[in-house]
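Schema walk-through. Below, the input block comes first and the output block second. Nothing else is stored per chain. Lengths vary across the set, and this one has 138 residues.
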Amino acid sequence: EKGARLCATKAPPKRSGIVYTGGVMQIKTPHALPMFKDEEVDHRKRRREERKDPLKSRAPEFVKSGPGTGGRYQVGYQQALLASLPGGVSALAGTKDKIAAFKTEDPREEILKYAKIAAEDPHYVTPAYANSQPQVKA
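--- output ---
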C-alpha cells in the first residue's frame, strides 16, 4: 500500500562515535589538557600583561618624535601641506615676488579691461542681459 513512502520515512540507523574515529580517539590540541594548563597565572595578571603587549591590546602606534625614528619617516604638518600643493615644495619658490606683483596690480583695472572687451564684442555678454547690466563708471 505505502510503496515508495515506506523507505522515505525510515530513519538511518544510529551509530556510535567510536565507529567514525576508528575506535581510537586522538587529541588534536594537546595544550588543552589540564596537565599543560598554567594555573598560577591569575586572570588579572594575564590582562595586565596583555595590556602591555601592543598586538594583543590592539593599541594604536604612537607618534615618534625626531626625523626617521624607528625606521619610519617622520613628516610634519608643514611638509604634508607643501606636498599637497600642485607644484609640491617648489610651488612656494618666489612667493614674495608673487605677493609683490599682486600688490602692484589693481584688481579694478583688470575687471574693467574685460568689461571693455564685453562691450565691444557682445559674445561674452549676451544681448538679453544688455538692458539689466549696471553702468560702469570709468
